[in-house]
Specification:
Helix content is 30%, strand content 26%. The chain has 170 residues and is α+β, with helices and mostly antiparallel strands. The chain starts with 20 loop residues before the first strand and ends in an 8-residue tail after the last helix.
Length: 170
């Protein structure tokens, strides 16, 4: 009696080839996909999506940790942020002054910072780059290809006392 071999049916889950790679995403979301199939390790089954806002928040927090960084953002965004901070129930914007581009495996980050008067700006920028790269790569697994630091302003000690001084007119 001869045995007959049957061709596997196409598009059935048990005959599907393991796949991997990346997927088209909604704007602002990076999706890394794993492999499928029971013979694949559990850690590689499924996908991980990293939204742009995640990288923005991580970079913003890592920048603010550096001594010498007084604030972040340009003049207008700092003014709006100051109003938001004074509103009851308002939250400060961790991502103020941070712009990112997130690809499939890499990210680029632009930062707008205000430094305190007297600190060496090049040292602060160097420390910011190191801290941001370490934090983003450790937390997200994305490779940081560049961190551009733009110093928009210097905070002077008398800037704090200018708001608390006596009124010029009554």
């Amino acid at each position: 009696m001869a045995t007959q071999e049957l061709a596997p049916k196409a598009n059935t889950p048990q005959n599907a080839e393991p796949t991997g790679g990346t997927r088209q995403n909604a704007p602002g979301v990076t999706t890394l996909t794993g492999r499928t199939g029971a013979d694949e390790p559990a850690a590689t089954r499924g996908k991980t999506s990293i939204a742009d806002v995640v990288v923005v928040k991580i970079a913003g927090m890592a920048t603010r940790e550096i001594p010498g960084v007084y604030d972040m953002g340009g003049g207008l965004s700092r003014a709006i942020g100051a109003v938001r901070d004074r509103v009851p129930g308002g939250r400060s914007n961790v991502g103020r002054g941070v712009k990112v581009e997130v690809g499939e495996r890499q990210t680029a980050i632009d930062l707008d910072v205000v430094v305190e008067y007297g600190v060496p700006i090049t040292d602060v920028a160097h420390d910011v780059r190191e801290n941001v790269i370490a934090a983003v790569e450790r937390i997200t697994g994305l490779e940081v290809v560049e961190v551009n630091v733009a110093v928009n302003d210097v905070h002077l000690p008398e800037d704090d006392s200018a708001d608390n001084g006596p009124a010029r007119v009554e």
